[in-house]
Amino acid sequence: MRTVSPSLKAPHSSIPLQHLVDSLSTIVFTLDREGRFTFINKTVNNVLGYAPAELTGTACIDLVIKEDREKTYIFFEQLIAGHQIIHFENVFHCKDGSPVPISWAARWDAQDGLLYCTIRDITERRQLMELHKKYQFELEKQNNEMSDILKRITDGFLVLDTNWRIVYANRQALLMINCTYEQVYLQNIWELFPNALGTVFEWQYKKALAEQMPVNFETFYPEPLNIWVEVNAYPSTTGLSVYFRDITDKKKNEETIQMLSLVVKETNNAVSLIELDGTTSWINNAYTKITGYTADEVIGFKNSDFLKGEESDDIALMQMDQLFREGAPFQVEMLSNTKSNAKVWLEISGEPIFDHQGSIERYFFIFRDISERKILEQKLERQRKQTTAAVLAAQENERAYLGQELHDNINQILTTVKLYSELIHDGIGNAKELSGKSIQLLQDSINEIRGISKRLSSPTQQNIRFKDKIQELIDSVTATNKIHFSLDIAKVDAFVVNKELQLAVYRILQEHLTNILKHAKAKSVQVVFDRIDCDLVLKVTDNGSGFDINKRRKGIGITNMITRAESLNGKLNINSAPGLGCVLIARFPITTH
To answer: Is the model more confident about 290 or about 142?
Structure first.
């Protein structure tokens, strides 16, 4: 061991102070210049498994894992040199050999010639950090998916905050206004487009925010854009989401009724003309394609009779009816039914048509089939809820498992040890025999705790051989002596797996083997690892009782395994049937790892 500097001064402590120090949850100790323990409180037994007497006089550096020793030497040297180090972490070995991450607080006292130290176990904090990283990854993934959707839509899309600054613009919006993202980001929209002040843009946007109601309008924007736009703005407490599309060509086509009629007739969107009494006076061909109703079936009848379906939103219908009666433009989304009673999501836009005197003559309705978009939104929402439910259920299962193990096993063992100790204390029974039984029961308790710790902890985060971690897992399951296991990992013998892929494969195999032990009644299990092209392939086959995969597909265990595989762009399939055993195949791409 490296010598820090030679001298030793033993600390002085009273008995009450000793009791106080021993009651702390952190490990308190002193080191001499040579890095040897001169004092250590009893908390070390709870955290590292050592009695204070076992460590007194030994070198602290011997407890540090090899990978962290060099930085620990430097840490000691800097403290003795008078530097104040606020944050330092390394990893200790417990008495049983397991690693424990440690956080330090230390100060060198030159007069005493001692290093006064406190350390604490930060295992739980690191686990929480890993969980936070996982949730952050899922959140970023969902944000990226939403960003991709916004980039692909054909409408221009802007997000304004309550100070009228642009905080987001999609690609189509930038193309329409002929700007780069850097030119518009966090810019005030009225300063960026001063010609919009005092126009319908300002009036409608401010109305939407003030009343917290969406607005829809069409208008012309002069220089430098010189385009007609249709705008739909949706308010929230944080600002305004604005969808707009260039309708310059549509406005030009409105110069003649014939050209307008031709365009409307051939468009993929359903179009209808609605009279002021609410009856339909004209529809295009797309109306029949989308709704199934012909012109003879709808002309002369109330438009609302064909819009309302079994699951239609009554509030949206009332809103549309109110705006229609007020002569205002509107846009709503509604779940309707076709003539064949099939469900169809429609985006319905209504625009008043004015005569030469400025009075409303009739309404112009456009129906867009947005079923695919709605199905995608619902699918994404279901996946989000399923992922959240699976994560929460897995956490609860782990807590329940840990609580049950502590209560049913360790608690009973320790209760028996307490009983034996009381008998010895009261002079009842053979003290030597009772002491021997107590020692054995305590060893059983230690073994139980080790087993629980190994189940709850993730595989080591060092890049070690993949084979060794899998072999360790198989050995731990084989120790139950319930099932014969065979492992074929030769093709990936020397393969080094990064921690994300290693943890995913480890947890999937651990979950599946646990299910086999609990439910399959299998006699033998074959675990095979292979490399096919650029993929790592895991195949697990058992000769157990099997199960109906359709009934078990939505189980938490299977959902967790599939989610883990998909999080690394992998695939997981399970084939089974009652009486025919089970085969699990998981495949992971490794070219990007």
So the answer is: 290
Domain extent listing, the chain = 15-121, 123-152, 155-250, 255-369, 378-455, 458-593
Q: Name the β-bridge partners of 347.
A: 333, 368
Least confident piece of the model among 73-77, 334-338, 589-593: 589-593
- First-to-last C-alpha distance (Å) of the chain: 38
Distance CA 108, CA 373 (A): 65
CA distance 55 to 38: 9
* Predicted confidence (pLDDT) per residue in 208-228, tens digit: 999 999 999 998 888 777 888
Q: Under CATH, domain 15-121 is a member of which superfamily?
A: PAS domain (3.30.450.20)
SS3 424: helix
User: Contact, 324 vs 275, CB < 8 A?
Assistant: no
Cα–Cα distance measured from residue 446 to residue 453, given in angstroms and rounded to the nearest whole number? 10
Which of 493, 472, 582 minimizes the C-alpha distance to 536?
493
Q: Which token pair is 408? A: 């049913």
Contacts of 104 (CB under 8 A, 6+ apart): 75, 88, 89, 90, 117, 118, 119
* Of 464, 461, 576, 466, residue with least CA distance to 530: 466
Task: Assess whether pLDDT exceeds 60 at residue 495.
Answer: yes
220/228 Cα distance (integer angstroms)? 4
Helix (H) or strand (E) holding 77: helix 66-80
Residue 593: partners with Cβ closer than 8 Å, 6 or more residues away? 497, 498, 500, 501, 568
**Spatial separation of the C-alpha atoms in residues 434 and 449, rounded to whole Å:** 22
* C-alpha pair distances (Å), 384 with each of 387, 412, 551: 5, 41, 22
Write the burial class of residue 127 (CB in 10 Å: 0-12 exposed, 13-18 middle, 19+ buried). Answer: middle
Run of H or E residues at 39: strand 37-40
Contact 108, 79 (CB under 8 A): yes
Nearest to 537 by CA among 580, 503, 570: 570
CA distance 228 to 239: 24
Most distant pair of Cα atoms in the chain: their distance:
113
CATH architecture of 458-593: 2-Layer Sandwich (3.30)
Within 10 angstroms of residue 445's Cβ, the number of other Cβ atoms is 18
Class of domain 255-369: alpha beta
Q: Are 7 and 33 in contact (CB under 8 A)?
A: yes
Q: Are 149 and 171 in contact (CB under 8 A)?
A: no
Give a three-class secondary structure readout of 338-388.
CCCCCEEEEEEEEEEEECCCCCEEEEEEEEEECHHHHHHHHHHHHHHHHHH
Question: Fold match between 15-121 and 255-369?
Answer: yes
Residues 113 and 110: their CA atoms lie apart, in Å, by 5
Tens-digit pLDDT profile for residues 413-432: 676 677 668 778 878 778 88
How is 61-114 classified by DSSP, letter by letter?
A: GGGB-HHHHHHHHHHHHHHHTT-----EEEEEEPTTS-EEEEEEEEEEETTTTE
Which pairs from 439-444 meet CB under 8 Å and 24+ separation?
441/413, 441/414, 441/416, 441/417, 442/413, 442/417, 444/413
Q: How far apart are CA 157 and CA 143, in angstroms?
A: 16
Q: Classify domain 155-250 by CATH number.
A: 3.30.450.20
